[in-house]
Request: fold
Amino acid sequence: MFRIQLIEMLTFLFDILPDTGRIRFTLNLALLLHKRGYEVYYTDSSDSVFTSHLLQQGIGRILFPHDFQWFIPDLILLDYQLRNKAIIYYKYGVETVFIDVQFWGHSLKGKNAIPIIYLPPSDHTIQPLSLRLDNLRSRLLSKKTFRLAIISLLEEGVSTFSLFYLYDIFKASCIKNNFYEFILLTNKTETVQQLFPLPDNMSLYRQLDLPSVLPFCDIILTSGDLNTWVEGVSANLPFLAYPVSQQQADIQSVRKYEKMGFGIAGEVENITPDIFEQQINRVLMDEKKIKNKLKKINSFFQLENQNLIQVVDYLITFIQQNRR
Reply:
């Protein structure tokens, strides 16, 4: 006689800061919970570029707090950056665990009053179409002489004034160094107008399928946002990171990359084409060591994603124990 093991229907609600990078760290767990047969939702305040993809996979969307008139989940998975909302969910009588980003040295579960689950990044990405993408890849592949491909993904949170200043520096460096192949992603019309005419070795794009382009690049310029960090790490690209502002928290954020051995932290203030070129050269001098670090953290993230089933088991046990 066959025995059918029934899975208790549990409901999970993710409440995550609506930042592409932070949502991305939750995707594999959400999809794994759904695959196990549980109901999984995100709050409407967690909307991101991944929302339509999640809906297509059968993961729902809840209006908070309106839908709590009829919907009460078994567990809230709350972004640690939104931890002040824990008291709101407590008033609804719902158990909560915190979700945070997995870096080296973190354990999966913290020992706080509210547990913290540290998650590795998902390999899911957004792949916008670009008619010029094939031309770009062909250009990067067809160079018969030495080319240094630098891609700039700096617009996440950086002030317009700082961007204008940096872009002028980058343009001057391209003119001076014809072996630079500079790829700049920008959604700002005023940026495009300011930079034209462009040197032959500098190109502008509004959107790109990054996983298809980054493997052909040598250095990534970033403001330190999580999504760019994940893309760069996945492509094994050394970082040159500039803070989004001169506030101490932003400066510490980009210095974190340098401390972890993924590249160097630059400074926007007082930068010149010569200083920029020196920073590029510093990254290249340490390229082998940096790429070894990136390779190790990629292996670490792959292992952590394989072990997410343990996180699922922990969450189920946590719900069951707190019902007693």
In short: The first helix runs from residue 20 to 24. The longest strand covers residues 96-101. The mean pLDDT is 84. The chain is about 40% helix and 15% strand.
